[in-house]
Amino acid sequence: MRLIESRATLVLTYALLALLLVVTLFPIALLVINSVKPAAQIVQNPLAWPEAFRWDNFTRAWTDARFGQTMLNSAVLSGLTIVLVCTTGSLTAYVLARRKIKSWKIITFYLLATTTAPIQLFLFPLYFGFAKLGLINNAVAVSVVYTAVWSPFAVMLLRTYFLAVPKELEEAALIDGASHWQVFTKVMLPIVSPGILTVALIIGLYSWNEFLIATTFLQRADTTTAIVSFFLLSGQYSSDWGEIMAAALIVVLPVIILFILLQRRFIEGMAGGSVKG
Questions:
Q1: Backbone angles phi, psi at 133, to 5 degrees
Q2: How many CA atoms lie within 13 Å of 207's alpha carbon, on the beta-carbon side?
Q3: Is residue 229 part of a domain?
Q4: Which of 56-70, 212-226, 251-265 has the lowest mean pLDDT?
Q5: How far apart are CA 168 and CA 191, in angstroms?
Q6: What is the pTM of this model?
Q7: How far apart are CA 50 and CA 32, in angstroms?
Q8: What residue ranges are annotated as transmembrane (predicted)?
Q9: Would you say 177 and 187 are in contact if contact means Cβ atoms under 8 Å apart?
Q10: What is the C-alpha to C-alpha distance for residues 118 and 194, in angstroms, rounded to an integer?
Q11: Rounded distance between C-alpha atoms, residue 235 and residue 25, angstroms
C-alpha cells in the first residue's frame, strides 16, 4: 500500500513539475517562434508555426536598435553596478554580522524600508541634483544610483553568509598574525563567495533590465542602454512585430545563457543564504 502511495506521489510530483516547465518555457518558445515570422503572420496568428522564416528580423533589429553600442553600454553599466554593490555590500554585511550593534533592529527596519521603497519617490530630486552637477548621461553616476537602490538587498543576503561562518576561523587567523583586512579578504571572502556570486547575478539581471532610471539619466544616443533602445523600436502608430520579437530575443539571450552556465552556483548560493538569518 505504501509503495502504491509513494508511486502515486512521485507521478503527481513529476506531473506538476512538467506543468510548471511548460508554463515557464511557453513564453520563451513563443518569443523564439515569432522572432522569425513576418509581422503580418504574427498579427494573424501568433501561435502558428512560421510559414516563411524571416532571419532578416535579427539583422534589422540589431541595426535599428543599435545593439552593438547599447548592449555594450548595458554591459558596462551592469559591470560597474555589480562591482560597487558586491564591494560595499560585503564590507557592510561583514561588519553587521561580526559586531554587536545595539541599534540592529533600527538598521534592519531601515534596510527593509529602503528595499521596498519605490524609486519614483527619489527620482525627481535625484534628477535635479544630477543635472546641477552635470552628471546626466554619466554611466558611473547611474551605477551609483543602482548601488544605492540594491545595496540593502545585498547587505541582508550577504550578512546571512557571514553569520554562518564560525568565528573560530577568524580567531585562528588573527592569532597567526593576520590583520583584520587579511582575515576579511583571505579567509571570509573565499568562504562566502557563493553568496557574492548570487548577489552579482541578481544585481546584474536587475541592472540589465532596468528601464526607468536608465531612460531618465541616460538620454544621449551614445549612452542609451539595450532595454531602452528595444523600447524605442515600437512606433507610435505602427510596429514591426517580427523585428520587435527578434530584438527581445537578442536582449534576453545573454541573461539566459549566463543563468544556464551559472544556475548551479546560483541555486547553491540562494539555498546557503537561507540557512541562517
A1: -90, -5
A2: 33
A3: yes
A4: 251-265
A5: 14
A6: 0.84
A7: 11
A8: 12-33, 75-97, 109-128, 140-162, 183-208, 244-262
A9: no
A10: 28
A11: 28
- Quick one: cell of 8? 502515486
Render 61-92 in DSSP notation, one character per residue.
HHHHTTHHHHHHHHHHHHHHHHHHHHHHHHHH
What are the cell numbers at 227? Answer: 532595454
Residue 232 grid coordinates: 524605442
Q: Is residue 164 part of a domain?
A: yes
Phi, psi (deg, nearest 5) at residue 141: -65, -40
Nine-digit cell string for 127: 534628477
In angstroms, the CA 178 to CA 221 distance is: 50
Total domains present in the chain: 1
C-alpha cell recorded at residue 136: 546626466
42 found inside a domain:
no
54 residue type, one letter: R
DSSP state of 156: H
pLDDT tens across 34-89, in order?
999 988 888 888 888 888 888 999 999 999 989 999 999 999 999 999 999 999 99
Residue 13 lies in a domain: no
In contact, 202 and 134? CB cutoff 8 Å:
no
CATH of the domain at 166: 1.10.3720.10
Q: Show the domain range for 85.
A: 60-273
Q: How many other CB atoms are there within 10 angstroms of residue 154's CB atom?
A: 29
